[in-house]
Amino acid sequence: MTLRNPDAARAGGYVLAIAGVLVAIGLIFHPVPSGGFEERPSVLANTPWWGPIHVAIAAGFVLCALGSLLVLVAGGELTRPWFAAWSWGAMTVGMVFFTGVALINGWVMHYLTAHGAPTSVPLLYDAFNRLLLGYGWLGNPLFLAGL
């Protein structure tokens, strides 16, 4: 295989393997979603590992973006034809948005639920829930297209 930068390709492969493990670990412990895409306060309140689960997923997503960028840098046959390069780029951009989803979920939504925001400040909770959905809808099509 002809590559512009074989070291970048190797590094990208290792980074993507680590990313896959982190995301898999997070998803193993993630509760099964029910009732649509919006986060449910009861699930957030009853899942004490919500933050660490989403930190692992977010770290995996960041590494997925990095691995995809490294593959783009490696170039050569990994980015030919043009659609292959577009796929790696779509994966990178999609992961940026998905990282936002995981971080908002892990730090903001769990914090808001723990401090009673769904009942005391529902507008704030709903605003973050909508932000979460928006980031998801921006990232999901790009990520899936990249796959």
Ordered list of secondary-structure elements with their pairings:
Blueprint: H1 6-29, H2 41-45, H3 50-74, H4 82-114, H5 117-120, H6 122-146
Helix pairs in contact: 1-3, 3-4, 4-6
What structural keywords apply?
147 residues; mainly alpha; 6 helices
General description of the model:
The chain is mainly α. It has one domain. Helix content is about 80%, strand content about 0%. The protein contains six helices and no strands. Helix 1 (about 5-30) packs antiparallel against helix 3, helix 3 packs antiparallel against helix 4 (about 80-115) and helix 4 (about 80-115) runs antiparallel to helix 6.
Which series of helices and strands comes N to C?
A: HHHHHH
Strand content: under 5%
Distance between the termini: 21 Å
**What about the largest sheet?**
none
Give the averaged pLDDT, no decimals: 90
| Principal-axis shape | elongated
Give the % helix: over 70%
Radius of gyration: 17 Å
- Poorly predicted regions: none
**Tally of individual helices:** 6
Number of strands: 0
Estimate nothing, just give the exact number of structural domains: 1
Structural class: mainly alpha
Question: What is shown here, in short?
Answer:
This protein is an all-alpha fold and 147 residues long. The protein contains 6 helices and no strands.
